[in-house]
From TrEMBL:
GO terms for biological process: copper ion transport. Residues 195-302 form the Copper resistance protein D domain. InterPro entries: CopC/D, CopD, Cu-R_CopD_dom. The gene is copD. It comes from the Bacteria. This is Copper homeostasis membrane protein CopD. Keywords: Cell membrane, Membrane, Plasmid, Transmembrane, Transmembrane helix.
Length: 311
């Protein structure tokens, strides 16, 4: 029961932190000028609620990790046990700092929503969200290695997390923009949407390259060999994750080289055709998001398993 809850807690926290970072990064590359105010208000509201979700899911993760270490959920009522985990373990120390950072992020997000100031060129929230996300690399399987190997593994895992958040988290505002474009609260013109799609694609190239490179490094540390990939449960779950990632890539390639060019060829006055292609693109984007969440669920399972190395 504790292990199943820990998988759920990990998934919720991964989803919240990747979304938080991706939403923060989006205006930095998606717009040549300022972010449209109506869209900015929506994004800032979602940032606040996502930050709250990151804090709550992080506390949920800590509680279940404490129960897993002590052996019983009943130990959560023992202040000495909770203090010992928070104060005397590397996980607890890192997690305490992370939860404090999550509270700071909530405050910054609430202030940004209240002030209604444009955050398209504000680097405070992206920096804080990135720090909360990459600090996950300081826990879990990256702590197996020591010395330079440990530094390389942590760095690779941090890069993996940042690339994943830029892609997955960026899909949410992209889907909203496409939804508005096809008839509900239209705020962007066809040329604006085309530019956003092309900038997102440019970011996607970097994110995918980073994911592949850092994924190979992480696999070397955690799997180590072909038999470890094929003959262990950890390797088989990793293969399932790679299959889901492959599905995301296929949808992304279809978007970039089929749907987006088709949209750009439609005459500006052909609203029906443009809306139809936009609807197809939005469906693909939502499909990418669904597969991305499935990838995060696989990662959550992998985090509770013994790596293939050494088997």
């Amino acid at each position: 029961m504790v292990e199943d809850g820990l998988i759920l807690a990990r998934f919720l926290h991964y989803a919240a932190t990747t979304t938080l970072a991706g939403l923060s990064f989006f205006p930095l590359y998606a717009y040549a000028g300022g972010e449209p105010e109506a869209f900015g208000c929506w994004r800032r509201r979602l940032l606040l609620w996502t930050a709250v979700a990151a804090l709550l899911s992080g506390l949920f993760w800590f509680a279940l990790a404490t129960a897993n270490m002590s052996g019983s959920l009943d130990d959560l009522a023992d202040a000495e046990v909770v203090w010992a985990v928070a104060h005397d373990t590397s996980f607890g120390i890192v997690w305490t700092i992370r939860m404090f950072l999550a509270v700071v992020i909530i405050g910054v997000a609430a202030w940004g929503l209240r002030s209604r100031s444009s955050s398209s060129r504000n680097f405070m929230m992206p920096f804080l969200a990135a720090a909360l996300l990459v600090s996950l690399a300081g826990t879990g399987h990256t702590q197996i290695e020591e010395g330079w190997a440990g530094v390389l593994h942590v760095t690779s895992d941090a890069a993996h997390l940042l690339a994943a958040s830029a892609w997955l988290g960026g899909l949410i505002p992209l889907a909203v923009i496409l939804h508005r474009y096809i008839g509900t609260n239209l705020n962007e013109g066809a040329k604006d949407v085309d530019r956003i799609l092309l900038r997102f694609s440019g970011m996607g190239y970097v994110a995918v390259a980073t994911l592949i490179g850092s994924g190979l490094v992480n696999s070397w540390f955690l799997v180590g060999s072909i038999p470890g990939l094929l003959k262990t449960l950890y390797g088989q779950v990793l293969l399932a994750k790679l299959a889901l990632f492959g599905g995301m890539l296929l949808l992304a390639v279809a978007n970039r080289f089929w749907l987006v060019p088709s949209m750009s060829k439609i005459r500006p006055d052909a609203t029906d055709g443009s809306a139809a292609w936009s609807a197809r693109l939005r469906s693909h984007v939502l499909g990418e998001q669904f597969l991305g969440w499935a990838v995060l669920f696989a990662v959550s399972i992998l985090g509770t398993m013994q790596p293939s190395v050494g088997h």
